[in-house]
């Protein structure tokens, strides 16, 4: 498992509108902060912080249960590692 721990039976499939990242998370909120956009946050920026945070939201696309969790985890991690191996 790449995104969630082995044995996970329920998780959320999220997509970030800002950076296009697709990932699984154990969180099941409608909207969560995008972990990929968060890396780009500049701590020096004060006044714009709120706006930036709003842009970096990933929305819940689908709740995955049972075998779906492992299937999607595999699909998404292959999509990432398959096309971008050079940095590894
Ligand atoms: Zn993002």
Give a short summary of the structure.
This protein has helices at 35-38, 49-55, 67-83; strands at 10-16, 22-25, 31-33, 57-65. The protein is an alpha+beta fold.
Model description:
The protein has one domain (10-83). It has helices at residues 35-38, 49-55, 67-83, and strands at 10-16, 22-25, 31-33, 57-65. It is of the alpha+beta class. The two termini are 18 Å apart. The radius of gyration is 14 Å and the shape is globular. The model has no long low-confidence stretch (mean pLDDT 83). The protein contains three helices and four strands. The chain has a four-stranded antiparallel beta sheet with strand order 2-1-4-3. The site of zinc ion has 8 residues, from α1.
- What hetero molecules are bound to the protein chains? zinc ion
Task: Enumerate the strands of the largest sheet in spatial order, edge to edge or round the barrel.
Answer: 2-1-4-3
Total number of helices: 3
Distance between the termini: 18 Å
- Supply the number of structural domains: 1
Mean pLDDT: 83
Poorly predicted regions: none
- What general outline do the C-alpha atoms trace? globular
Compute the CA-based radius of gyration: 14 Å
Report strand %: 25-35%
Give the number of DSSP strands: 4
Q: SS-based structural class?
A: alpha+beta
Order of helices and strands: EEEHHEH
Helix-residue proportion: 25-40%
Biggest β-sheet description:
4 strands, antiparallel
């Amino acid at each position: 498992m790449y995104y969630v721990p082995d044995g996970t039976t329920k998780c959320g499939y999220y997509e970030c509108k800002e950076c296009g990242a697709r990932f699984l998370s154990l969180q099941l909120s409608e909207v969560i902060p995008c972990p990929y956009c968060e890396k780009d946050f500049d701590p020096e920026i004060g006044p714009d912080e709120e706006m930036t945070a709003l842009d970096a939201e990933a929305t819940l696309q689908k709740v995955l249960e049972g075998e779906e969790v492992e299937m999607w985890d595999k699909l998404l991690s292959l999509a990432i590692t398959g096309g971008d191996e050079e940095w590894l």
